[in-house]
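We were asked to recover a plausible sequence for a given structure. The inputs and outputs are reproduced exactly as logged, with field labels preserved.

PROBLEM: sequence recovery
POSITIONS: 128
GIVEN STRUCTURE:
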């Protein structure tokens, strides 16, 4: 069974979001997603400074099994990306909620977080 931290928000495309003290939002893929993908061998991240719409492709994850798009779970400006993933993409497998984060985004509208799934709703979505 996947680990689904209670303090995070989730979207059905299997990204998690953590609201930071400075108002930015850290985004990564869930443990469930990385389990489905298998060993991640390559990660493509969005460009810092780019503005993404809610649901827009933000990057790509390639594993030994498949390639999968990563989406912006909310609209906003990309503030930072996790450069460590380029050198060590398997961080998304070993630490999906920690060192394996993908990008930080400045929300266009902070209220967008309110409509996202909590841990219980995401667990129900993935059958955990």
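RECOVERED SEQUENCE:
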């Amino acid at each position: 069974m996947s680990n689904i931290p209670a303090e995070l928000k989730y979207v059905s495309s299997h990204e998690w979001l953590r609201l930071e003290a400075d108002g930015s939002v850290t985004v990564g893929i869930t443990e469930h997603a990385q389990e489905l993908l298998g060993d991640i061998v390559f990660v493509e991240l969005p460009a810092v400074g780019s503005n993404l719409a809610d649901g827009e492709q933000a990057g790509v994850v390639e594993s030994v099994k498949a390639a999968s798009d990563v989406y912006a779970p909310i609209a906003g400006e990309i503030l930072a990306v996790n450069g460590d993933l380029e050198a060590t993409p398997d961080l998304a497998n070993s630490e999906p909620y920690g060192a394996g984060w993908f990008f930080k985004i400045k929300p266009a509208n902070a209220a967008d977080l309110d409509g996202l799934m909590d841990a219980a709703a995401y667990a129900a979505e993935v059958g955990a």
